[in-house]
Amino acid sequence: MEHITLLIGIVIVTALVFDFTNGFHDTANAMATTISTGALAPRAAVAMSAVLNLLGAFLSVEVAKTISSGIIDEGSGIKPEVIFAGLVGAIIWNLLTWLAGLPSSSSHALMGGLLGATVAAVGTGAVNGDVVVMKVLIPALAAPLVAGIASVCATRVTYRLARNADEGQTAKGYRAGQITSAALVSLAHGTNDAQKTMGVITLALVTGGALAPGANPPVWVITSAGMAIALGTYLGGWRIIRTMGKGITDIQPPQGFAAQTSAAATILASSHIGFSLSTTHVCSGAVMGSGLGRKGSVVRWGTAGRMVVGWALTLPAAGLVAAGAALLAEQGDWGVAAVAVITLAICGAIWLRSRRTPVDHTNVNEVEPATEAAMPAPSPEREPAAEPEPAGVVTTAVRAVYPPPAPAGVGAGSATSAAARPDAGEQLPGEPPAAAPSRPASAGSIS
């Protein structure tokens, strides 16, 4: 019994470590657009998000029930070692995607870890496949689409309603709206994601005989899970905030407001019915939708493609790592100790690697080098018609002044006006460099 008690304690600590990584991994979901548009200073944004994550943890336990007694059969012989291995798989995948700046799903990392460890240790019979399909896989596919469509509609309606208003005044109003909607997303994130750790700890207590099957999470479990995710949120996952705020599309205050409001509504609705939703999928879909909804905006599909690949790999990758950890942990005390040592070594190596290119609140709004390198450079020559659709702030700046105004003193119907002004405002081959004075100034005005 002493061994079981000690092991459960290890599982609880590991679950709280996962909750901590979940916090800084998913800070971007609530605050990336608010930080990128300057509605809130980075430190103030993550502090507000941390407090609301903590409060959100106390609003519901429906998702925790899905984790503790839904996807895995509690009476199938699951041991604490298996849960420990599942958490290890989720933590390692969270840290790897954080290092890469990819907003992958912490929720799916946890699901994949638990499923992989369970299958390796007990077999597929311990997995409730219908629950996995209905409450994990289907929401994973539907959530970004629903949030994206809602964000497209909300962005277009927002710009239409404000088309005749003063841009400076509306920007102030939308920044205030962004702060409100970001607060709502943070509250929703605490309601949904903190419960996943509650569910894991509750499952460990049930497997160790400390709780009856089907029991709700105790108050101390709710409190500790809320505090762990809040602390992680406060530290800020700056790498992922940079990707969400600058890497997908260039966000203006009305877009940020529309994206966050759509995301919050989707997350809160799913939490109410017990869907173990990925807040990352929802918020990423909403940001893409806001890019599609604003006329002249550009979605960087290369970054979006990397994200989708990361989403597709999350469940199997975390599951494979957890399966290996489960097979080793089941060898006894030395196996559990070996898994713990290997995990600490991997986490330490990832952290040391991250120090080579640090990202924090001082440089979070700078465009990451990989994205900047992918942007098309201004050229004095007309680009070929077959050039792939460019993405980046340069393209947005050029489109903002398209087409250029007619030169003074030249009639709108003049043939010389048409000849002197190419369709895209670009310099034709053989023209002197002075023929396109506006492009360098527009492109250089956005960092």
Automatic annotation (TrEMBL):
The organism is Streptomyces diacarni
Q: What name does UniProt use for this protein? A: Phosphate transporter
**What is any one of the record's Gene Ontology cellular component terms?**
membrane
What is the similarity comment for this entry? Belongs to the inorganic phosphate transporter (PiT) (TC 2.A.20) family.
List the transmembrane segments.
40-61, 82-102, 108-129, 136-159, 219-238, 308-328, 334-352
Its placement in the membrane is given as: Multi-pass membrane protein
Query: What molecular functions are annotated in GO for this chain?
Result: phosphate transmembrane transporter activity
Region entry Disordered: which residue ranges? 362-447
State the UniProt keywords alphabetically.
Answer: Membrane, Phosphate transport, Transmembrane, Transmembrane helix, Transport
Q: Which domain of life is it from?
A: Bacteria
